[in-house]
Write a structure and sequence with these properties.
alpha/beta; Rossmann fold; five-stranded mixed β-sheet
């Protein structure tokens, strides 16, 4: 085999060694960042009260169909399907209070997109409060994807609420111990 650079076998060996060295570091896995602990109050909760924090003006009946309680009703039903919780009718009976909100986008509708600005999207969010102390323990939010048709707006809202319920379920599942 003819060398790439005649008379420079040493340079080729050095280049090959450097490539192997770089490849080794590029493929080496960084140590896993340990997960921050989930508050004990969240993991031990059995009774939940779900509060309807409302929906911002301008979201119902367009672009989303139904009433302003539509998202709350769907989120409530999703959590009701999780057999590990008892949904109670009063915050005073609950271990945790979850506040569900649908928020309209904030920010300019005609931002300068050439400088990296984008129109914000509606979001669905949940804040988890410790009922005895009233402190926020955790919060989630999911964006509602862009749509042009009414039925697609509705489906995207449904999908965002499903993701939000899944976020809550993933948080409350026991986490594997970190070594």
């Amino acid at each position: 085999m003819r060398p790439l650079f005649p008379g420079s076998h040493l340079a080729q060996k050095i280049a090959f060694a450097a490539a192997c060295f770089i490849t080794t570091f590029a493929t080496a896995q960084a140590p896993a960042t340990p997960h921050a602990p989930v508050p004990r109050a969240i993991l031990s909760a059995r009774k939940l009260f779900i509060a309807n924090g409302g929906a911002d003006a301008g979201l119902f009946p367009s672009p989303f169909s139904g009433s302003t309680s539509r998202g709350y009703d769907q989120f409530y039903a999703a959590l009701q399907g999780m057999s590990q919780y008892d949904l109670v009718s009063s915050p005073s009976e609950a271990d945790l209070v979850l506040e569900f909100v649908i928020q309209a986008p904030l920010g300019p509708a005609n931002a300068n997109k050439q400088k990296g600005a984008a129109d914000p999207l509606p979001t669905v969010s949940v804040k988890i409060y410790d009922r005895p102390t009233h402190y926020v323990l955790w919060a989630f939010s999911e964006e509602v994807d862009v749509a042009l048709l009414q039925k697609t707006h509705d489906r995207n809202l449904d999908d965002a609420i499903t993701r939000l319920a899944q976020d809550f379920q993933n948080l409350t599942r026991p986490q594997p111990a970190t070594p």
